[in-house]
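Holo prediction. Input below; ligand is heme C.
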Amino acid sequence: MKSSWKVSWLLVCLFLTGCQMSVLNPAGRVAEEQSRLIIFSFAVMMIILLVVFVLFFRFLWRYREDSRIERPPHTQENDNKKLEITWTVLPLLVLLLLAVPMLMQTYSLETKTTQEEMTIEVTGQQYWWRFDYPDENIRTAQELHLPANTNITFELNTEDVIHSFWIPQLGGKKDAIPGRTNELHLETGRPGVYEGKCAELCGAAHTDMRFQVVVHEEEDFTDWVEAAGQDVTPEENETVQEEGARVFQENCLACHAADGAATKNDQGPNLALYGERDKISGSFANDEEQLKAFLRHPNNFKPSTDMPAYNNLSREEMDALVNYLHGLTRENVQGGSD
Ligand code: HEC
Ligand SMILES: [Cu+2]
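Structure of the complex:
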């Protein structure tokens, strides 16, 4: 018995440390309102729990075996209208108390605010996210860049199964469903880097269907848009290593583009400004060693991914390729195109 208690406590602790609780650390208006809602419903729950426990222990004491309290005879007819009305009406009120603000919140996720400022088309696929910026005419993947303090409409689509688009610190969460476009309205707040994830089991690598959300100051965002949209078609760019560019062009261009202006090579994630990304595929540290390991055996990172394994490239080719990808930075790209 004792050891099973220890195990349960350990599990509880593990679960608590496992959650990052990022919904309670909001970084935008919608998320703030939602975290207030979570705290509010939690408080209501705790008050009810307190009342229940106080009554529980009171009865336990009052009707203990050796108490001298008078016990009325037990009959079927004993009814108490007042009590019955109380325990019908009270829960109803509690439910209303919870339902009204929640419904209001749910509807506000559906409704466009009057000052809609930006639209982003989101496309989920096993196991990555594509982001199209129709007004800026660029595309990126796995790393979503947004300006701070802006109302954003996400148009959610999927190429295959159902995915669910969720940025806990920005609030909301909505499914991307085959054959239709769902809209999600969020508002960014302070700049920072936040985690996004797919919240609907969608296949073997679902857990790692994550993405990074980079919220920029206004002018930094414009700067990023400009750089991401630069054409870095390998042969035209001299600042990024030539050999790596050649390997990329020969092997990867069918599925990937190295600049955000390209819209054709869309079978794999867009790799614009790849040297600036913190994470490979939104999940693994983007350092030289891991990137090589990923390219050689993507399946070890993302089971059942469509990205082919490149363990046939020579060591020199692999070095050059990784160098090229990590050389795709704002400095190189903008400097190289002048
Ligand atoms: C058949 C299409 C295809 C080819 C060819 C291909 N890839 Fe991929 N690649 C993918 C897909 C699909 C993913 C997405 C994997 C995932 O996250 O589920 C991917 C993911 C990646 C990623 C991680 C992207 C991110 O967001 O961090 C990198 C880097 C990458 N590929 C590099 C390459 C390189 C370099 C080559 C050539 C040597 C190459 N790929 C060839 C389809 C392809
Ligand atoms: Cu998914």
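The longest helix spans residues 29-62. That is the main takeaway for now.
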